[in-house]
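User: Sequence for DUF4153 domain-containing protein below. Tokens please.
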Amino acid sequence: MREEILLNQHNALQLEKLYRGNKPGFKAAFNALYPELPGNPLAEGWYQRLNFGQDELSGGAGAWGTPGERTFVVAASLFAALIAKLPEMLSISEDFFYPRNIGFIVAPVLMAYFAWKNFISWKTRGLAILLLVASAVFINWLPQNEKSDTLILSCIHLPLWLWSLLGAAYNGGKWRKGANWLEFLRYTGELVVMSGLLVLSGGLTTAITIGLFKLIGWDIQEFYFQYIVICGLSAVPIVATFITRVQPTLVSKVSPVIAKLFSPVALVMLVVYLVATLVAGKSPYHDREFLVLFNGLLVGVMALIFFSVAETDQSGSNRGQIVLLFLLSAVTLLVNSIALSAVLFRISEWGLTPNRAAVLGANVLMLAHLFYIGLKLFSVLSKRTSLSAVGASLAVFLPLYSIWSATVIFLFPLIFGFK
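Assistant: Structure tokens for DUF4153 domain-containing protein:
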């Protein structure tokens, strides 16, 4: 977004299109870029338009979207709640339904929201609907077998596939060219933060409500959880998205702080964990559960690196944060190398299985991505490139994660005979 604004700083029509496509992202990028545009009348006009007399946390109706937006959010929340209650309405086993379809409670309504906001063409919308329907049909067509590794892998990778489709909707239907995956990562981080706040608030309200009714002798716990809690949790993502869109500064100031706080914690934790692993004599080469935990840790830290890169000042002025991200990526690269070598060892000793193939592919992809990010961060530190190049590296690899997740979901069951 920063580069697009800078490129079109004298083009009023193009700036208007950028603004309407992503208002919160445009405002954040423009305000960061504004000091670099002295004497530009168009930039001055935009600054006044975006910031003059605006109470960011105003409680007025205008600060909470248009009536059409609020109506859309209510309708989408009700639709998500309806999907969540399908097992009860259609007498479907919850053990069958939720592992396969939990992603479809959230993804379609969020994709519809961004398709509506970004004025995506009906041709692109039709393709998105086709992909969603095909994914839903396929995952529910897989044979029910709780011991099937390919079924479990498909269910685990399906949210990642749906997340990538959501990213395309967020980017106005664009997948590669013109897609701003860095902004999408920033939105994802803000969505997680706001959803967490809403869940905490809802949990407190639930505890108080159930407690108050118990005082008058009414036990509403089962009813409350079956209807209010399930429906409320289904609505959280769309409500959180709406809040981050209409009140961008509500979370945008919190997310960078979270990234700065947890990045050093993750770095220290990783180093201590590696040392403790050596002292304890634990080995991912022979302990399968330990290898699973090792890879889970790796995925978590990778997500934190992505989030931190998205929330770091793109001007590159925060050198300390960049050094921290470089060290974190270097240590995570070491962890990834150990995990990858352990997977290769287990394959050479006991053969290829669906789980080992999935972990092998994911580790190879993450290893290449971490190495690429590390090179870009080192270039930033040596002042050979800007931090925006690190963000661009995410645009290169995130579609590859999507392709890999689709491979695991749709091809692994067929390749390995539903084992």
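Residues 53-58 have pLDDT under 50 and may be disordered.
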